[in-house]
Design a protein that fits this description.
Layout lengths: L6 E5 L2 E9 L11 E11 L5 E12 L4 E7 L7 E2 L4 E10 L3 E11 L5 E12 L6
């Protein structure tokens, strides 16, 4: 299992970085089930706290099939991220192809109740060495 290099996007004072990893022990290539984990770090470089309210994802497999996922928070939480702090979590996705991409946005809210969207960079989920 080898992790990818981080992919990073910054929106206003929020930086989002992602590292993905193929999970061979949970995958079944004969049944076309390719399982990946991804670890996301959300850093608040601003001067006020922000709370993550919602997420939306666009998930694309190697055949160009797209699915959209929306929901509250991440991994069951709606964390508040203080200035200078980073919130990190790990989640996963199952693909029917050995390569796919994910991208999306987090909806945040500032103390003044202003809501804004933060980009999650496009990142690749791929079997190791499949693209070399």
């Amino acid at each position: 299992m080898s992790a990818s290099s981080p992919t990073v996007a910054a929106t206003d004072d929020i930086s989002v970085s992602v590292v993905s990893q193929y999970l061979p022990n949970q995958s079944d290539t004969d049944k076309k089930q390719f399982v990946f984990s991804y670890t996301i770090s959300i850093e608040n470089t601003g001067e006020t706290p922000v709370q993550l309210l919602n997420r939306r994802w666009l998930i694309t497999d190697a055949n160009g099939e797209e699915s959209e996922v929306q929901g509250e928070g991440v991994v069951g939480q709606q964390p508040t991220i203080a200035p200078g702090q980073t919130y990190t979590y790990t989640s996963g996705s199952v693909f029917s192809t050995p390569v796919g991409t994910m991208q999306g946005q987090y909806q945040m809210i500032a103390p003044n109740q202003q809501k804004f969207w933060v980009d999650i960079p496009v990142f690749r989920l791929a079997l190791p060495n499949i693209l070399n």
